[in-house]
Amino acid sequence: MPNDRATWGGAVPTINDVARAAGVSPSTVSYVLSGRRPISAETRARVQAAIAELGFHPHAGARALASSKTNVIALVAPLRVDVNVPVIMQFATAVVTAARSHNHDVLLLTKDEGTAGLERVAHSTMVDALILMDLERDDMRIPSLRRLKQPSVLIGLPADHTGIACVDLDFGAAARAALEHLAGHGHRRIGLVGPSPAVYRRQTTYADRFLTGFLDASAELDLRTVTHPCEPGTEGVRACLSDLDTELPGLTALVVHNEEALRPLLDLLQATGRRVPEDISIVAVCPRDVATAMPVNLTSIDIPAHDVGTLAVETVMRLLDGRRVEYTRLLEPSLVERDSCREISTSHR
Amino acid sequence: MPNDRATWGGAVPTINDVARAAGVSPSTVSYVLSGRRPISAETRARVQAAIAELGFHPHAGARALASSKTNVIALVAPLRVDVNVPVIMQFATAVVTAARSHNHDVLLLTKDEGTAGLERVAHSTMVDALILMDLERDDMRIPSLRRLKQPSVLIGLPADHTGIACVDLDFGAAARAALEHLAGHGHRRIGLVGPSPAVYRRQTTYADRFLTGFLDASAELDLRTVTHPCEPGTEGVRACLSDLDTELPGLTALVVHNEEALRPLLDLLQATGRRVPEDISIVAVCPRDVATAMPVNLTSIDIPAHDVGTLAVETVMRLLDGRRVEYTRLLEPSLVERDSCREISTSHR
DNA sequence: GCCCGTCGTCGAAGCGCTTCGACAGTTTGT
DNA sequence: ACAAACTGTCGAAGCGCTTCGACGACGGGC
User: Fold this and answer.
1) Among A28-37, A74-83, A193-202, A212-221, where is mean pLDDT lowest?
2) H or E segment at B73?
3) Which residues are within 8 A (CB) of A20 and not within 5 positions of it... i.e. 6 or more apart?
4) What are the beta bridge partners of residue A300?
5) Residue A76: other Cβ atoms inside 10 A
């Protein structure tokens, strides 16, 4: 065993050390690693043995410099603590997991670094691609994204995303599915408990897409419906519910597109003696685990954060190796029946 | 304007382009950027102008290769969706924000990649340091961390962390503070609603530290106390409360070290006609916003995720530039009085 | 039996940046 | 007035890897 850097205390072995140990040239080691050229079985074995013995790990920076690939993707997440924390977290988890399964790592950026953050990591070549979540209708970051040499994938659906891939749940179809389910159970007077006004103000389009789908389906199915945003907190829920009741007396079902309102809403209904589903049916739009963590197991349309996150990564990978992608990919909603909707006899119609 | 790569379509300018444009050598540009050698004001101005004009951004990989610094720190987060999501998120937010303010970025790893993940990013020199959260008493990752050339900082306090910096809330002191507060209000019979058994099983030490602090303080203050873990869900809470009531009849106060139990607990108390604080006082251990989002504004001991995250990053920075650090830094708990504790008249003692 | 294509390997040229030593010119100390 | 110490800049040598072209050794087609 030669007394070189690799075997002497501490120093990190390089590809040259491996090459020397295996009796080949550094380029051969590189080709063993990348598989970009044929290498004989014996040589490969020797190289791999040397790699294992020396504990060699290629230097990411050097690799990035030489190959113009970092194997890192940026994930831009809204890290304010106000809304939707569990959903954000599910997205992030899915993205990291999926990225790892494609041998990539994830650099976490906050949304509040804004355009500057994107440009910083892109221009300095820290990442190969970007995934953004929580996009607003006219998100200022989009023009900037178009100028980057790295591709990006959006989780969400801003107004003009020409040339940028988007993935999201089809919220319009989700609203329709909710109404169809309720209509199918005989409900005719239905209220929508929407997201908080802050969400509409922020112009995150999922709220509008849901609302539009809701109104369209309502018309087509010939339902009587009324919609209302819902401020967070017990008070907001109380106000929202009372507005709905006033504007559409005798409603028999609620579609709730507001995770945080769910708990106080159920509390309130219980407190005022309205049983779910006997007196009022509910379809929620929320992650599965939220729906099942309520006092009543809620019939719900899942927000498939995991699938969306995974799909975003798949799309990134396709873009990175030049395969074609669909530029707008909206996932079909899936409604799961649980215990919060009851059949209304037709006489009630 | 010369027709070189930098001005011609698309190509990314390098430090050489900047040097040429400013009429200096590349090393001078580098020194302007790093400030590691004195540069005359005029030269500096010219270089900066060239940088701005060309839109130059140093290549992160090249920089990492040449300087052996990546300006990236790894954050290893428990991305299972089960527990404590908001707290995790607060840690992450704080870490990213603090890291950015020190000109570093954050690479997000999941805990479930385990030791291999740490070693991968460390050996391949993707990061300068690591921050880990959710450490278990005898966390398998610790020996591995010791072998890395990068320093690490733990959020949590495993059994043997010799040589590795740890930051966390002082949960022992938190328990003591809760009891002192209640004792100060005349309470003598107090129950602890602890974390779920899963937390104890996972051997995350904060649960034990809290429990130990609780028992010690209980003895010193000469209180009658009883403690119980609490399974998640309404049922778990019901069982826990009934156990506590049975084992210590007539208890007048509860310390709740279990965020998720809080809501169902309050519901349950209300449903069984026990008013807070008139019939029973509560001190919660949870993030501020959880305490204030309850039907009753809870007197609470804050889990200062933001401060802990920030401190973790500060510690990393000190380690990176070779300053001394405290190897165990436990933050003083701070109890905020709100509306869930009442004074008990001495006759009740 | 000769030309050509493939296989397996090597050497060398970068990738874009940092940093060390050198050096000319300018201060400072005495 | 002269050595010593700065100041401000440059050139060159890497950092550790990938990749391109070259080249010898083979094997197949005609």
Assistant:
1) A74-83
2) strand B72-77
3) A2, A4
4) A284, A336
5) 26
- Tell me the chain A residues in contact with residue B80 when contact means C-beta distances shorter than 8 Å: 93
Q: Name every residue whose Cβ is closer than 8 Å to that of residue A204 and which is 6 or more positions away in sequence.
A: A134, A135, A136, A137, A156
The Cα B211–Cα B182 span in angstroms is: 16
What is the arithmetic mean of pLDDT over B241-261? 94
Question: Which residues of chain A make contact with B234, given a CB cutoff of 8 A?
Answer: 295
Q: What Cα–Cα distance (Å) separates residue A267 from each residue in A190, B268, B290, B319?
A: 19, 12, 17, 50
CB B276 within 8 A of CB B266: yes
Rounded Cα gap, residues A289 and A259, in angstroms:
11
E-state strands within A31-182: 72-77, 105-110, 129-133, 152-155, 165-169
Q: How many CB atoms lie within 10 A of CB B1?
A: 7
Cα A102 to Cα A31, A67, A219, A309: the distances in Å are 20, 17, 45, 13
- Given an 8 Å threshold on Cβ–Cβ distance, is A92 in contact with B109? no
- Cα dihedral across residues A181, A182, A183, A186: positive or negative: positive
At which residue do the structure tokens 């530039």 appear? B321
Render pLDDT for B3-56 as a digit per residue (tens, 0 to 9): 343 344 568 999 999 999 999 999 999 999 999 999 999 999 999 999 999 999
Between B81, B108, B233, which is nearest A96 by CB?
A: B108
Closest by alpha carbon to A325, among A335, A314, A333? A314
Question: pLDDT for A155-191, tens place per residue?
Answer: 999 999 999 999 999 999 999 999 999 999 999 999 9
Closest chain B residue to A263, measured at CA: B263
Round to whole Å and give the CA distance between B127 and A109.
15
Among A334, A207, A304, smallest CA distance to A258 is for A207
CA–CA min distance A97, chain B (Å)? 8
More confident site: A218 or B263: A218
Q: Which two tokens stand for residue A68?
A: 């113009």
Instruction: State which protein residues have CB closer than 7 Å to strand C.
Output: A 23-28, 31, 37-40, 42-44, 62, 65-66; B 12, 14-16, 26-27, 29-31, 33-34, 36, 56-59, 62-63, 65-67
As a whole number, mean pLDDT of residues B176-180 equals 97
| pTM of the shown model | 0.92
